[in-house]
């Protein structure tokens, strides 16, 4: 009996009114949607009523696209396992991937912790993307003042810019710059140019080193988020780094919004480290040809953390 591969999950987040439901409805109608299960907090918050065919099970509706949409009642883990079990029993249509749409005030780090570290879910699903929808009209002004917005932007592997056609090119560029300050490693895409899930495949994957780390600098902006990017010219001592990073997360995990590091280690070659808050993905050892040089590149995004001291701590313990 062959073991089934884990079901890929796309986590879709974004602040209130950013337009994530509008984009999701569009993506579900696109030919690339395939068989998708959508988990939402409340049907009343999701603008997919015009797509409904009818109720096929408690808290579950069938969409014209052939996808199913289920309401989350209780714990996220239970909702995921329930929809997988019901599909295996033939109670609802089978599906190839799961999209989880969060509320506008959700903290992605808690959801990521559930997806990455629950021992049951670990063999059932795998995180493919964290897609954060950013409002071009309000993102750089009203939304950026909210701590939830900063956390959602920092957690993203893909940033979808909505309402880009409603703002000037200068305002859109200002948002792009603000997003890059908060999360310099995320792929930025205009939602209008991404009608389906296929358009985000292969970009911003949290497990792939396709992002630009070449920002050896330190930034702070009006959101309260600070970004520190470091480049180490020689191979990294893996043991020293892990000891240092573990101590950092233990002491300041609540202040860390994002950690993303492409390390060239002395022991095992290129390793990708990716995490949000206290949650770290399992380190991924990459093929040696992935790294174009011997450098290690590290990005830290935090709030209320002295980045100068962070840099000094790294240089003293790990190296310069």
From TrEMBL:
SUPFAM superfamilies (alphabetical): Hypothetical protein YjiA, C-terminal domain, P-loop containing nucleoside triphosphate hydrolases
CobW C-terminal domain location: 225-318
Pfam families in alphabetical order: cobW, CobW_C
Keywords for the protein's UniProt record, in alphabetical order: Chaperone, Hydrolase, Nucleotide-binding
Record field: catalytic activity: GTP + H2O = GDP + phosphate + H(+)
Regions annotated as coiled coil: none
Family: Belongs to the SIMIBI class G3E GTPase family. ZNG1 subfamily.
Function of the molecule: Zinc chaperone that directly transfers zinc cofactor to target proteins, thereby activating them. Zinc is transferred from the CXCC motif in the GTPase domain to the zinc binding site in target proteins in a process requiring GTP hydrolysis.
UniProt protein name: GTP-binding protein
Source organism of this protein record: Parasedimentitalea maritima
